[in-house]
Amino acid sequence: MFRYFTAGESHGPELTGIAEGIPAGLPLTEEFIEEHLVRRQQGYGRGGRMAFEKDRAEIRSGVRFGLTTGAPISLSMINRAYEKDDSNWPKVMAKDGERGDVERITLPRPGHADLVGVQKYGFDDIRPVIERSSARETAMRVACCSVARRFLQELGIRIGGHVIQIGSVGYGSWEEVRSAADTIAESSEGAENVWRTADKSDVRCLDGTLSEQMREEIKKRRKEGTSLGGIYEILVTGVPAGLGSYVHWDRKLDGLLAQAIMGTQAMKGIEIGLGFESGRRQGHDVHDEIAYADHHFTRKTNRLGGLEGGVTTGMPLIIRGVMKPIPTMIKPLKTADIDTKEELDTRYERSDVCALPRAVVVAESVIAPVIANAILEKFGGDSMDEIKDRYPSR
Ligand SMILES: Cc1cc2nc3c(=O)[nH]c(=O)nc-3n(C[C@H](O)[C@H](O)[C@H](O)COP(=O)(O)O)c2cc1C
Ligand SMILES: C=C(O[C@@H]1CC(C(=O)O)=C[C@@H](OP(=O)(O)O)[C@H]1O)C(=O)O
Questions:
Q1: pLDDT tens for each residue of 325-339
Q2: Name one GO cellular component term (predicted).
């Protein structure tokens, strides 16, 4: 079973990760991981921090001469914010000594984890909550999940995502998105082609015009001092039929995918295939007719997004997630001071305005371990050679 853990604070010296359970013999390099880390840092709407962090995960164990050894892979990533010459963070984040003149943060931001974190742990300072709830953690999460993603790539499984809605700007119908997305994903790169063909510094959207409108929407809302969320879609191609389970509720693949997406900062919902739209349609406009061609069963459409009974059908997985607007905003909201209980305006600190293009990379990443585990469960194996022997050729 593949598992991973992350540790580290947003403004501490570094993020640490352990990714373990990947078979021996998988080619893995820091460059492979870095490609996804760089993608996670880009996209219109990002804040100031992403301009100077240069995320790179150093592999500290578990890989020898470019191949995994089967041992836990430990990863380490520096926070440049901490290391900068003018940084006050070593003082704010000191692991010992007295607080001294280090300021306490007492104004919780609505929508962030600030108040619930203080209530849960009994802190008199919001700082430790900010540090660990921050989506800075997703840098290491992407690094750890890239190990699973590399494993999937070796078996011909590709993951790619794109933005379909930012605030009020988005695609019309589900079918409209399908005709654009599925054509792109049919290339030899499969779903990866979705991001390989997109402008990485932009909104990472399938339609250039829409991406221009999305940028305008972000620019407008930034000027107003507010923030934006949106909806993204993740495609997975090359998935064999039969992963997951209809037998046990906790092994249904759709449920596990939902946990991975909803376990990510700022996510408020997930859909598989038509998702909520399927509740508005009649059965004949939802269920995918079955056909047999080229020695395997297929579906004439893929409105159920590649899953029936919690088990993969062999069609691409189609997963959508919705991200709420970023909680830190220039124009204040009302809040109550945790010390004085006085009603005051929130204070603004540097922040993303809209992180959808970055969140797409995180969402692509977090689903990789779910699929990798379904494969390991079904085909097992301690080495890549063993798994490849057991893995079905399509
Ligand atoms: C990629 C990404 C970037 C984010 N950037 C910010 C940010 O710059 N400022 C902010 O206040 N929240 C940001 N968030 C959202 C917060 O991390 C999130 O709302 C907070 O941890 C509370 O958790 P919850 O939204 O899951 O309830 C970001 C989330 C993601 C996924
Ligand atoms: C640092 C990252 O994202 C951060 C996520 C985040 C939050 O509150 O979630 C707040 C901001 O951090 P800071 O206050 O240091 O500017 C973002 O920059 C990152 O993605 O690497």
A1: 999 999 999 999 999
A2: cytosol
